[in-house]
């Protein structure tokens, strides 16, 4: 056994300090956040990163995988890893439903995308009669199983699926109206709903939950790995009674949510 001079113990084993995958991923995150690698920029190749960080190929590959899982990178076969371009649509929950805040015969989302320079496409996927699920029935103050009209939409922003919206209405209230027919309603459904009810709509209550998507939701919204979703449930009332429940699902990386709240 070798001994250190003056000691009875073997010398410590010395090895070249290697960057871990976590350390490399953290360093690259900082460089992305600082703007060194701007949205859309091509990252250095794996070979260049191996040389720069003095790490093994597998370590660099793992670090890049972490960044893809975080939703920061997208990979293109034969080209490399690119910083993901993220342009968020601002959804103003305080004023978006006020008719005075948007052009006539324009839905809230139409007004938002026009003002912010996005392009929107609306796909009406289904209009159907369905028994009320227990959670929707509770929010609409009806019995579970009571007939509802559901309208399901897929909304595309700048050519990419960005959100889904499933709206539920008591069938007894909207029977015979355009709400129950498979057609897009110009200006949105709320003007039609108010006309059918014969009274204005009142306040809306929104509840948001951030979570990771299910496999089906990932496919529906074409989400890159590591991208969370925001689930939003909105209940609209008229004269104190609920008249519509809408379940939204947003690509969280492509939206931001703004609310103005009173402070005493």
Automatic annotation (TrEMBL):
GO BP terms: negative regulation of DNA-templated transcription
SUPFAM superfamilies in UniProt? Chorismate lyase-like, Winged helix' DNA-binding domain
Q: What is this protein called?
A: GntR family transcriptional regulator
Q: Where is the HTH gntR-type domain?
A: 18-86
Q: Which GO terms describe its molecular function?
A: DNA binding; DNA-binding transcription factor activity
Lineage: superkingdom: Bacteria
Q: Which InterPro entries match?
A: Bact_HTH_transcr_reg, Chorismate_lyase_/UTRA_dom_sf, Tscrpt_reg_HTH_GntR, UTRA, WH-like_DNA-bd_sf, WH_DNA-bd_sf
Keywords from the named record:
DNA-binding, Transcription, Transcription regulation
């Amino acid at each position: 056994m070798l001994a250190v001079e003056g000691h009875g113990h073997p010398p410590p084993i010395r090895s070249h300090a290697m960057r871990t995958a976590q350390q490399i991923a953290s360093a690259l995150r900082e460089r992305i956040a600082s703007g060194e690698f701007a949205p859309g920029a091509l990252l250095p190749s794996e070979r260049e990163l191996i040389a720069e960080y003095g790490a093994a190929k597998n370590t660099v590959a793992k670090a890049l995988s972490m960044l893809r899982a975080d939703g920061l990178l997208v990979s293109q076969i034969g080209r490399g890893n690119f910083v993901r371009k993220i342009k968020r649509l601002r959804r103003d929950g305080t004023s978006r439903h006020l008719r005075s805040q948007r052009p006539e015969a324009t839905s809230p989302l139409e007004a938002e995308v026009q003002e912010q320079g996005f392009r929107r496409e609306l796909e009406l996927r289904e209009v159907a009669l369905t028994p009320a699920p227990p959670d929707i029935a509770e929010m609409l103050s009806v019995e579970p199983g009571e007939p509802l009209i559901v309208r399901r939409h897929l909304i595309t922003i700048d050519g990419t699926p960005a959100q889904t919206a499933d709206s539920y209405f008591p069938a007894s209230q909207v029977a015979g109206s355009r709400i129950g027919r498979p057609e897009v309603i110009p200006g949105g459904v709320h003007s039609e709903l108010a006309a059918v009810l014969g009274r204005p709509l009142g306040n809306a209550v929104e509840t948001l939950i951030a979570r990771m998507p299910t496999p089906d939701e990932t496919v529906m919204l074409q989400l890159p790995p590591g991208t969370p979703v925001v689930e939003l449930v909105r209940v609209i009332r008229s004269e104190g009674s609920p008249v519509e429940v809408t379940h939204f699902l947003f690509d969280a990386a492509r939206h931001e949510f703004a609310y103005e709240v009173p402070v005493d």
